[in-house]
Amino acid sequence: MRRDEFIKLLEKRVLFLDGAYGTELFKRGFRGKLVEALNLENPEMVRELQRDYVDVGADILLTNTFSANRMKLTQYGLAEFIEQINAKAVEIAKSACKIDQLVFGDMSSTGTFVKPLGEIDFDETYTIFKEQAQILVDSGVDGIIIETMSDLKELKAAVLAVRDVSRDIPLIVSMTFEEDGKSVTGTSVEIFATLMNDLDVDVVGINCTLEPKQMLSVFSKLAKYSKKPLCVEPNAGRPMLAGNRLVYRTSPEEFAIYMRDFVELGANIVGGCCGTGPEHIKLMRKYIGERTPVQRAVTKEQFIASRTVLKPTEPFLIIGERINATGKKKLQEEIRQMNYQQLIRLAQEQEQEGCAAIDVNLGLEKVLSEEHFRGVINELDRYASLPLSIDVQTLNFLEICFREYVGRAVLNSATCDEKHLLARIELLKRYGGMLIVLCMEKDIPEHSEERVKLAKKAVEILKAEGIELERVFFDPLVLPIGAKKDHRVTVETVRKLKELGLKTSIGLSNLSFGLPERESVNAAFLSLCVDAGLSAAILNSKEQTTMNVLRGALTLKGEQLVKIDQLEEEPLVNYILRGQREQVMNLVQEMLKYREPLDVSQNVLAKAMERVGQLYATGKIYLPHLLLAAETVQPVFDHLNSLIATGKNRLGKVLLATVQDDIHDIGKKIVATVLRSGGFEVVDLGKNVPAERVLEAVREIKPNIVGLSAMMTTTVGYVKETADLLKKNGVEVFVIAGGASMNQQLAQQFGVYYAKDALEALNLCKELLGGEKA
Q1: Which DSSP category does 563 fall into?
Q2: pTM score
Q3: What is the torsional sign of CA 406, 409, 412, 415?
């Protein structure tokens, strides 16, 4: 099906997606390691399920290929069958269809994070997704769905891969969020929607993790921020054990009632995820009936975003200017040596000073390589939170930055020269973002009329290319008054562009270059520009006079800057959160002059990390900050441990493992990070660990606690098997279980403890071993 046909269908009526595969096939007797293997081993079992979904009224069938990318298949020793598994899945789904059903190729995560959060790089991730997408498209799917994604960067790689395989195939993208509307990596549903508004996708959705009543509030945010048609697939609650069978607490009747609420909020496609079966889809279809999609009111605000921070561009966008290596020999040399410490410090300082975005200019680009630009973007992702304005002039380097960037950045900048502008528009179309257009071609016009004329020319090009003018700032050009340039030309250009309904941005410090008392001059000029209608400025936020005058000028216009929320923490916690290892070590060394190493380790550093864990658990910081904090303190803990007598440096020993046939270990790694930071020694056996291997390791390592993770419904039973094996062999050890498929009721039935997240695991471990909670 062509994309335009699919969009017309979505405008006509609400479509019904099918339900779960893994949980439903498990219910029907499947006991293997990977449901995708059924495509070759027992295709009729898959076909029967899909026929049942067709019979109850599903408009869209997904192929049984959720985990059929090369990385996941490798974990199960099936990588050599990737083409057969995917192609056969399409054949099975098509054979299950009647007349009007569509078959969408199902793709999902590789199971790991992309750098800098994980070990796999962006290009490798892209290649993995492109391979699967090519097989699915070649096999004749009507569309592609990329679902259950938790890392926005990985999703971006998948979108680019699919679009490079086919520009014309319908594409649905879906992320999974917690009840607070954040993914495990800290990306909010608003950030997800904002980036997807730009990317070349047709439908945006959320699925998995939450049951319908939990998902409603999250979906309402998506409906407010997304300009695209919407898809939603909740779970049927969390699993419970009934005899030897897992059941889900949300009945088909309750599920159907809630799904009508999603339609009222604007859903175009409704379906089910874990725990839903044909009976859920049947009642949902019956209860909702033939419906025209509800028209939604979508916010018209423009935002820029990093992985974890969303910033409105109204009423005024402050962009920090100080990451600029032009003319700064020391900074340029540090960048050449791939030493980004000063860049990171400057980014963090400008965030504290009230900037909404950070401009990044690495100076002389001809002495740099692709790795320099890739490294800068990834390091700022790890150590800084704010969105970026990327000031890179070499086109291939600029593309690397936008390819690697997680979020919606500002492209700084394009000229009005058609060739130059079109090249940057292509980057915006592919990667998303906003754009600054300089009111010049090769030379800078002397008069405002000429600058405005060039802006009008650029407007026509932007419109022809389908770029909304709300995504564009026009730079009226600020020239040094020390070189006898008339500042009033710039002010007048701002005013005229404002009258045309265009946004404007200036590079403020260009005005006072070479002058004394620069701050006062900058502030006065900025006030004139704001009064003329200026929308944004790249400026030095360290200049308090400039910042105060800006606030005052906006107040006089009846506008006010959005208040910047700051984490007010003690110095040690702040150093840890910013990755300032040297400062952490200096503080610790000072304390060691009058305190024992064990005291500093457990009562100072561990307490600071407990605070970091609390901030993470309450949603005030996110996974990137948590991983950075753990990385920052680990060498300091190691130093303290070297000064402490053996055996006294840890609260206890914890053995972690993801159970047999389960290859997901992202959540377990987060738990390991928090436990280590909280004072425990952690041994991680990895993923897909059989019960016998856990028993063997317990006998060898003698841990105080065993932590088991089960992310998949089809593998949650191995938690009980492992716990039972330990008890049968007389091993006395506390067993804690967690993961998406676990809950308190299952844990009680399995005879183990339950921790819903990393901080709860830390508190439980301390409680079990007689320590205090974090």
Answers
A1: P
A2: 0.89
A3: positive
